[in-house]
Automatic annotation (TrEMBL):
Protein name: FAD-dependent oxidoreductase
Domain BFD-like [2Fe-2S]-binding, first and last residues per copy: 424-478
UniProt cross-references to PANTHER family, sorted A to Z: GLYCEROL 3-PHOSPHATE OXIDASE (PTHR42720:SF1), GLYCEROL-3-PHOSPHATE DEHYDROGENASE (PTHR42720)
Domain of life: Bacteria
UniProt domain FAD dependent oxidoreductase: residue ranges: 30-380
One Pfam family linked to the record: Fer2_BFD
Length: 505
């Protein structure tokens, strides 16, 4: 693998664009996917099963840097989406695909089940409607449970709760490693990835599309629009039938590992106008997540937490679950959902823009739906383009070895073989130098502090990278062959070191 110097990650903003671009100045692909979030990477992974020249373009310096990285990390069972909707179909299918996909691509997933808690007898009719909707959607194992069974499942459920909808097929997943696994597998099967590549225009240029970027022009026969919050911008560039996406911000708390086991299942409140309400859930890494809010904003980059938002989470969190240990909070964050005005996924070829495939409005349950969306779009393109199977396709990927998951004998043998796995870098999460080296040198490897964090969890613990950051910078600089002052937090201008000690002004 060849490593080079870092390129500046320009802010994403669509500006004036040229109407025509000379084909001779660009590179030709069969398919270009805009966006390396979980949807774009899933499409790429399933397309890699076929013989096609595919490229994913991403404005950030890594995958999973937008909507996909900041959410509830829930694999929804599929009882909530309206029956007959594309959202319901993709949710149920994606949820059913997730266990097998997790084994194939070696990412953390637990089918821990979920409860939707009903707090008042007057709301039982709505709980039953949710159950009936889930049955129509094809969700398996749904059951309305009473107080006794509910408290067997979750002892900390509120004393005022009267019943709950139990969905055993629901699960939890790591959004980072899911997206990274999809991308790595796509890349090893021949898909190109271009990072720090901001798309500024999509233009019909004769018999093909030209995708104009800050790194030059790329020609393609088909475009897949998986741009998350900006999917409406690209769709509206090429189609007279406009769509509109609103950023919907959600604030969250993450609690320390000390709260592991406080809840064993994902606990929802009955859904309201703006979604599923504040949830309390375990994570696959042993933390507890609490949130989100649902606030519509205008800024597509507005991922800042707010005092009002966090106060709202605090006020609503203990409605369904009591005694939540919020004093064990180690961090808070906000994510944005790509809410389309009609609250429906838009998947398919734009009616008045041939060969332009939308994956737009992919809000919750988008993470749950991502495998199904990827397969659906790949199959659509297979049929339209008459793609042939890729004889070299390998659908299995091995993740980064975590010594904590090994027996003492296996761990000793690993350290004997490679002493770097005996060097702890992140004390909070017990991440070793060996894991960080693997993260850097594997396909689409880490190039920034966040890149290491998302692949290994170095910096995600109680001290929130307070102790391990200097050592992570040292390892990145050494392995990438650059100065420590070139290492960034997450690409672009996010450098942490701005000069040497005793430098004169």
């Amino acid at each position: 693998m060849r490593f080079g110097t870092r390129e500046q990650n320009c802010p994403f903003f669509i500006k004036k664009y040229r109407k025509t671009i000379k084909r001779s100045d660009s590179t030709m692909y069969d398919i270009i996917i805009i966006g390396a979030g979980v949807t774009g990477c899933s499409v790429a992974r399933y397309l890699s099963r076929y013989q096609a020249k595919v490229c994913v373009v991403e404005r950030a310096d890594d995958v999973c840097c937008g909507t996909s990285k900041a959410n509830s990390a829930i694999v929804h069972a599929g009882y909530d989406a309206a029956h007959g909707s594309l959202m319901a179909k993709m949710n149920v299918k994606g949820s059913q695909m997730m266990p097998a996909l997790a084994k194939e691509l070696d990412f953390p997933f637990q089918q821990n089940g979920s409860l939707v808690v009903c707090m008042h007898e007057d709301d039982m009719l709505y709980l039953k409607e949710l159950y009936e909707n889930g049955i129509k959607n094809g969700v398996k194992g749904l059951e309305i449970v009473g107080k006794e069974r509910m408290r067997e499942l979750e002892p900390n459920v509120s004393d005022d709760a009267v019943a709950a909808l139990w969905a055993p097929t629901a699960g939890i997943v790591c959004p980072f490693t899911l997206t990274i696994a999809l991308a790595e597998n796509a890349n090893t099967n021949g898909v190109d990835f271009k990072f720090n590549t901001e798309v500024t225009a999509v233009v019909r240029n004769g018999d093909h599309w030209t995708v104009q970027t800050n790194q030059g022009a790329l020609d393609t026969n088909y475009v897949v629009n998986a741009a998350g919050l900006y999917a409406d911008v690209f769709h509206n560039m090429v189609s007279a039938k406009k769509i509109h996406i609103t950023p919907r911000r959600g604030d969250y708390f993450i609690l320390d590992h000390a709260t592991d086991g406080f809840v064993k299942h994902t606990v929802f409140q009955l859904p309201g106008k703006y979604g599923k309400g504040v949830l309390v859930a375990p994570t696959v890494h042993g933390n507890t997540i609490v949130g989100p809010t649902a606030v519509d904003i205008e800024d597509k980059e507005g991922t800042n937490t707010t005092l009002a938002g966090l106060d709202e989470v605090t006020a609503k969190a203990d409605i369904a679950i009591q005694n939540i240990p919020l004093r064990q909070t180690i961090t808070s964050f906000a994510g944005l959902r790509a809410h389309e005005d009609h609250h429906e996924f838009i998947i398919g070829e734009a009616e008045d823009a041939p060969h332009f495939i939308d994956c737009a409005g992919i809000e919750s349950p988008g993470l749950s739906s991502s495998p199904a969306i990827g397969m659906t779009v790949a199959d659509l393109l297979r049929d339209k383009m008459h793609l042939q199977p890729n004889p070299k396709f390998n659908g299995v990927r091995k993740g980064i070895i975590d010594p904590k998951t090994l027996s003492l004998q296996e761990r000793a043998e690993l350290i004997q073989k490679d002493p770097a796995y005996g060097q702890i870098v992140c004390r909070c999460e017990s991440v070793t130098e060996g894991q960080i080296l693997d993260a850097i040198h594997r396909p689409l490897g880490a190039k920034s502090i966040d890149g290491v964090k998302f692949r290994t969890r170095a910096g995600m613990g109680r001290c929130q990278a307070g102790f391990c950051t200097p050592r992570v910078i040292e390892i990145l600089a050494r392995e990438l062959g650059v100065g420590q002052n070139e290492i960034t937090k997450n690409g672009g201008a996010s450098k942490l070191i701005v000069g040497n000690t005793k430098d004169r002004a």
